[in-house]
Amino acid sequence: MKIGMSHGAGGEVMQDLISDIILSNIQNTRVNGGVGLEDLDDGASIPLGDYEIVISTDGHTIDPLFFPGGDIGRIAVAGTVNDISVMGARPLAIANAMIISEGFPGEDLERIIKSMDSVSRETGVSIVTGDTKVMEQGKLDRMVITTTGIGVAGRGETVRDSGLSPGDKIILSGSVGDHGMALMAFREGFGFETDLESDVAPVWGIVEAALNVGGVKAMKDPTRGGIANALNEMADKSGVGMVLDEDSIPVREEVKAVSEMLGIDPYEVANEGKVIIGVDPEYAEEVLAAVRSAPYGEGAQIIGEVTEDKHVILETSLGGRRILEAPVADPVPRVC
Ligand code: MG
């Protein structure tokens, strides 16, 4: 076989590659009984004494490097902060490896670094180590940034994506499809003319507010493959289903317009500043209020509830009912 674009697009095709070639060829995948590689969660954990160290890494190949609402630097730090956060760990430090193409403009690099610094200052996460390499012109598309993050949680306090049980409420922290559709619109030549902007942002504030209330059972950030992928993955791994109220899933008008024009489902494209939180029903209203008062969480909604049935079902107020399937691959490649 040869690697295709869909092998990196966060859907079933990528999952197959991961199990067939990666997982089957690595033997040591877990430390001290923590969350390991084959758990395919947002990060891994290493239990040490009274704590769990959470680690997560992400390579960024985004096209374009600068887009409405952000750039590769913002996404490289926010994306890794978010994967650490949804594991229930306070993000502490980031390592930053950059591979840059010969001829890349110095002023663009400086803009990207300043953007990384701004997320780092906003979240209190330090950029503590890094690596810089250059490849000959024509051998690399401008630049690739890989960030690795470290966070910490109390022992046994990490949150998995697989902890849902029937009756739990599903909270979504805001509107969906903004990042993927903004990138797609930009690539299609709508440029900066629409109001469509990426939602790229660090979600630690939202997660911390939710954890402080309590009752959080599972979390995931709906990146590649969108909420369709994240909700199905959470349901699948937890051995449950969901019934979602489609009217309560926030989709911005600009996102709807572009998605209809391009024929792309906003539920299947990446978000870069959102969290899905599964919560014990007794805590749901209080967690919702806490999330809404956190930065980037004002648009949060309870979108549904966990069921025993194994499907993720969307219901509309008009009585429509359909199964929300996980996408084979994200319809918009190179978004993060
Ligand atoms: Mg993630």
TrEMBL record:
GO BP field: protein maturation
Ranges where the PurM-like N-terminal domain occurs: 41-153
UniProt xrefs under InterPro entries: HypE, PurM-like_C_dom, PurM-like_C_sf, PurM-like_N, PurM-like_N_sf
Residues in PurM-like C-terminal domain copies: 166-314
Family: Belongs to the HypE family.
Name of protein: Hydrogenase expression/formation protein HypE
Species of the source: Methanothermobacter thermautotrophicus
